[in-house]
Specification:
With about 525 residues, the chain is of the alpha/beta class. It is built from 17 helices and 19 strands.
Length: about 525
């Protein structure tokens, strides 16, 4: 065994092909071109198959990573993909979108080991291998795998509100169990954050289209342009369905609450910006350019100067999308340090490679504007760290060095989210916590209303795609049990023990964090 480990540690890490920065800013294709089979097998062979499987424990859905990589090493791509699909409904998406450096790869001992020659290699590229085998499986099968024998219909109907990762997971698993599922989406097409928030250079649109076709083949119906709480009530859904799942997402963009935000044009929330960018609105930034008519073509050299407030994944997506839409410059203003950015480390590196300027330890204090009511800049204050009061979270304070202005023609606000007020209205009968998010039973996702379940970002706050999938899997099992108890003539489900969800911290280097 020790000899095997020693031999595996001598295998050099394999890198996936990716576009050069100067090329990718001119297109919307995925940055990484992926592995070929030979390199994927070599990379999989770097796994030392630890008996304690720390990578499995670090994965929110607990993928059996060593088994999958062992199959891939032997060339069994379909078998490896099947292992990932046993615990994840979207391995091709998790492989692309998860911050693996804080999850499975962050706990991979291969990345900690020091070789006899003093060489240190990165951890096994688990995420890219997960995406590789899932992509290969779809290519060979002509789409997502379907069950050989569909489950017999149960006659039970379920309404799923929201078509993001959590909602799609619940819809798929309940459809596979024979229930009739209808998904309600407030926008014009389904997909939630996967369709409207994540740009194509991170997740190719064809993957999501194939996933939606797969769900349709399973019998899932989609009703779009319907917002629950406005177009249809929860009471109405319960009259037509046996159970309701609320996968409502993170909610609405939190405002900056700075002087000038509501008075000046050219200040937009990140969700609005990404919605328009991902909808394929050509030369989007022309709309915000002060010297051009709307929808005019803006040459890159004369495009607007863009400033993004925040350091989340959504902020990174907006910065990189702005560059592809012709921004003359993109600047990120963040109150913390580079190590405290909430987005994936890889996305931060890609943004820097593509030309984004990051300014750390600065706080926006007001928006500047011109006589026409358009934003012209962001007034900022430099921050330092109060060493004397640094206990737990670091506290920022003004250094008294004066304020400065970062010029801007367009400001994108990416400072988090607030719960959707339509679904937290007291008239819904749903109990919420002090932060306005839904209270559920941590084990089942059952809300305060019988037959109404919830999960994902609407419960635990903005988080990862994989944590939304994990919540969807857990709650789908509880909904299935609830529906089958109805067939016995009673709802054999204990009263939900409502509590704020316990969020598991994830490690960033030597720190633990709770952000996106």
């Amino acid at each position: 065994m020790r000899n095997q480990v020693h031999l595996r540690l001598q295998i050099s890490a394999q890198s996936a092909e990716k576009q050069a920065p100067e090329e990718r800013v001119r297109n919307w294709e995925e940055v990484y071109q992926g592995f070929d089979l030979e390199r994927a097998r070599i990379e999989a062979a770097r796994c030392i198959h630890c008996p304690t499987t720390p990578c499995v424990a670090a994965c929110p859905v607990h993928n059996d990573i060593p088994t999958a990589l062992g199959l891939l090493e032997r060339g069994d791509v379909l078998g490896a993909a099947a292992v990932f699909r046993q615990t994840s409904t979207m391995p091709e998406m998790c492989g692309r979108l998860c911050p693996q450096e804080r999850l499975c790869e962050g706990d991979c001992p291969v990345g900690f080991a020091i070789r006899p020659d003093g060489r240190q290699e990165p951890p096994v590229s688990i995420g890219k291998l997960e995406a590789f085998v899932a992509d290969q499986q779809r290519a060979r099968l002509g789409g997502f795998p379907l069950p050989e024998t569909p489950a017999p219909p149960t006659g039970r109907r379920v309404a799923v509100v929201g078509s993001g990762p959590s909602g799609l997971t619940v819809a798929e698993l309940l459809a596979l169990r024979g229930h009739t599922v209808t998904v309600y989406e407030q926008r014009h097409e389904p997909g939630g954050a996967l369709a409207h928030g994540i740009p194509p250079f991170k997740l190719a649109r064809e993957i999501l289209r194939q996933k939606l076709r797969h769900l349709t083949l399973l019998g899932v119906d989609f009703i779009c342009n319907t917002r629950v709480g406005r177009d249809v009530t929860i009471d109405e859904l319960l009259r037509e369905h046996d159970a309701v799942y609320l996968g409502i997402g993170a909610g609405m963009d939190a405002p900056a609450r700075l002087p000038g935000e509501t008075e000046l044009q050219g200040i937009v929330p990140v969700t609005e910006f990404l919605l328009r960018a991902n909808a394929g609105v050509g030369h989007l930034l022309a709309t915000y350019h002060p010297h051009r008519p709307p929808h005019a073509v803006v040459p890159a050299a004369r495009g607007p100067r863009v400033v993004v407030l925040g350091g989340s994944d959504a902020a990174m997506d907006a910065m990189r999308a702005a560059l592809r839409l012709g921004a003359a410059s993109v600047t990120c203003l963040f109150e913390g340090t580079a190590e405290e950015l909430h987005g994936r480390r890889e996305e931060h590196e890609h943004a820097r490679e593509e030309g984004v300027t990051f300014r750390y330890r600065v706080r926006a204090v007001a928006f500047e504007g011109d006589a026409r009511g358009r934003v012209t800049g962001v007034r900022c204050r430099r921050l330092g760290w109060d060493e004397a009061e640094r206990r737990g979270p670091q506290r920022a304070f003004g250094m008294g060095e004066g304020e400065f202005v970062v010029p801007a023609d367009l400001v994108i606000v990416a400072l988090g989210y607030v719960p959707d007020p339509l679904l937290t209205d007291p008239r819904t009968g749903l109990q919420t916590g002090p932060d306005g998010r839904l209270l559920v039973d941590p084990q089942t996702g059952h809300t305060s209303r019988p037959g109404v379940f919830a999960g994902g970002d609407g419960v635990h706050g903005p988080d990862l795609v994989v944590t939304a999938i994990a919540a969807g899997r857990r709650t789908a099992a509880a909904i299935d049990a609830y529906l089958r108890s109805l067939d016995d003539g009673h709802a054999a489900v204990n009263a939900p023990q409502l509590a704020p969800p316990g969020r598991q911290p994830r490690r960033r280097g030597r720190r633990w964090w709770f952000g996106r």
